[in-house]
Amino acid sequence: MTAANEAASAAPDRRNSMHDADRRLRIRITLAVLALVAIGFYVGFFFLMGSR
Amino acid sequence: MSAVISETHHDEHPSGIKRWLFTTNHKDIGTLYLLFALLMFFVGGAMALVIRAELFEPGLQMVEPQFFNSMTTMHALVMIFGVVMPAFTGLANWLIPMMVGATDMALPRMNNWSFWILPFAFTMLLSTLFMDGGGPAGGWTMYPPLMLQTGDAFPFVIFAIHLMGISSIMGSINVIATILNMRAPGMNLMKMPLFVWTWLITAYLLIATMPVLAGAVTMLLTDKYFGTSFFNAAGGGDPVMFQHIFWFFGHPEVYILILPAFGIASSIIPTFARKPLFGYASMVYATASIAFLSFIVWAHHMFTVGMPLAGELFFMLTTMMIAVPTGVKVFNWVATMWKGSMTFETPMLFALGFVIMFTIGGFSGLMLAIAPVDFQYHDTYFVVAHFHYVLVPGAVFSIIAAVYYWLPKWTGHMYNETLGKWHFWLSTIFVNLTFFPMHFVGLAGMPRRIPDYALQFADFNAIATIGAFGFGFAQLLFAYLVFQTIRGGEKASDQVWEGAHGLEWTLSSPPPYHSFTTAPEVK
To answer: Considering only alpha carbons, which residue of chain A is nearest residue B168?
Structure first.
């Protein structure tokens, strides 16, 4: 590891990256959960009303 | 290395039409939403003027009754789904990443899609006016069996509503994903600006209710074309069930149209009172309480269908309970101003107009919540007066206030303050001239959605029509001011307003293409 790299890894990374893997994963989980909720409400209402 | 390449890739952005078609930038998409809302404001406004021109005097003189009914239906759909909701989404796009210290929205490509669905949806909706049988004329509530009499327009309206719903749901998922995952270090939930909070709660409301609307209109579609009987009494269905499903969506929708306005007022009033917002935490809890209550009040829209007394009592009392958190909010805004060093620039004027006139709409809502007297008010112009006070000097004034407040930040130029003040006073005078007399004709028994009326209502209707045309023309001044400010003007500072606080004011005016490439310090 070069001296510059060592300095960079020691300093806290304040770059506001869109490509942070952990952040991307959390965003995708949020997307999946919310999309499922929306689809669930749509389909659920159909079954609820159809079963009357 | 790949991270470096992908970071720099974002610095290239196309120009011309491609920039707007393919953009994934939150500021560009925010601008698109806001310009779309402005365009639709004039389309929906023109429809309102057709309605008011017909109602200027008793008798039928301007348009056919069927077209009049189309105008009331389309005016509502355009103003709700094409103006207020896109305008709030535009503000969310512009402001949320800047307020929470993010570079952009969490899902930028979906953001592009959310917007570009809308012009197609509205082109389809508006094209129904030229179809056999005319546009939809059963009211924006689309109650069957009347709605099922729509001509060729019917499936196009249903599909357009589906598209609007998909756009809203995707926009909401994006807002939630951004707020939950993209906040700068130190920006915990209880440090977020109230506008971000109100939008977070609004987004949850949208995700819970838009699929319900989509379900209801799909059931209408299958009832009309596929032989189902969800709402057809002859086939064992129940038309009143549609009303229950529709208003299960419709009442939270009312709060979708007003919660972001609360966030805007909570941003602007502290700035021009030069004091921090009074009762921040109580504002957050009040917003959440309003959102919760909005799910258990829906049948107050249908007291007259003949429900059990226990049902009427339940929905009456839950509706009245909403006055408590709403009262907390109004109290907090007033307490914020108490002994503040107040100045009255245009955004503050519109925000104050919002607080006062929205409260008038809130009070008439309380009157309508009283089940026994709602039997008198139901389907009269009193209802029209009530929801227009909530939506025009309420939601629309808050959007205008927000545009004046943040336009210098967005464009880097100050707007013309004198013209802004003219815009405020003309709007305020004419909006009251339009909607206040509707309380009187409503209490006297004038029904809504009817192109003709009895002679005793003539004077107040003439006044309302004069007010509506005045209000409409005053908004041309707003459009002129906005475009004048975009083109140039006095340079705005980064802080813009002396009393402004928040991360967005730490950026340059106009802000860089990507807001916070380095996460800001939040104390």
So the answer is: A38
DSSP helix/strand/coil, B16: coil
End-to-end CA gap in chain A: 69
Mutate to test the interface with B, among A41, A47, A48, A52 (most CBs of B within 10 A): A41
B266 catalytic? Reply is yes
User: Residue B439 catalytic?
Assistant: no
Element (H, E) at B328: helix B323-337
CB of B415 closer than 8 Å to CB of B484:
yes
Q: Cβ(B385)–Cβ(B439) under 8 Å? A: yes
Tokens standing for residue B316: 């009456």
Predicted confidence (pLDDT) per residue in B400-439, tens digit: 999 999 999 999 999 999 999 999 999 999 999 999 999 9
Q: Is A8 on the interface with B (CB under 8 A)?
A: no
Instruction: Count Cβ neighbours within 10 Å for each residue of A30-41 and write b for 16 or more, e otherwise.
Output: bbeebeebbeeb
Residue B7: its chain A contacts at CB < 8 A?
17, 19
- A47 inside 8 A of chain B by CB: no
B169/B83 Cα distance (integer angstroms):
16
* B459 assigned to active site: no
Whether the model clears a pTM of 0.80, i.e. scores above it, the answer is yes
Q: What is the pLDDT of residues B89-146, one digit of tens each?
A: 999 999 999 999 999 999 999 999 999 999 999 999 999 999 999 999 999 999 999 9
Phi and psi, residue B380, nearest 5°? -105, 175
Contact flag B216-A14 (C-beta cutoff 8 Å):
no
Half-sphere exposure of B324 (CA within 13 A, CB side): 13
- Which value does ipTM take for this structure? 0.84
**Phi, psi values for residue B160, rounded to 5°:** -60, -40
| Beta-bridge partner residues of B518 | A15
Residues 62-101 of B with CB under 8 A from A: 101
The DSSP result for B141-157, as a single string, is TT-TTGGGG--THHHHH
Tell whether omega for the bond before B510 is within 30 degrees of 0, i.e. cis.
yes
Instruction: Please give the angle made by the CA atoms of B504, B28 and B90, to the nearest 5 degrees.
Output: 70
**3 state DSSP class of B479:** helix
Q: Tell me if A14 and B519 make a contact (CB, 8 A cut-off).
A: yes
- Residue B141: closest CA among B253, B50, B225: B253
- Determine the residue type at B110: M
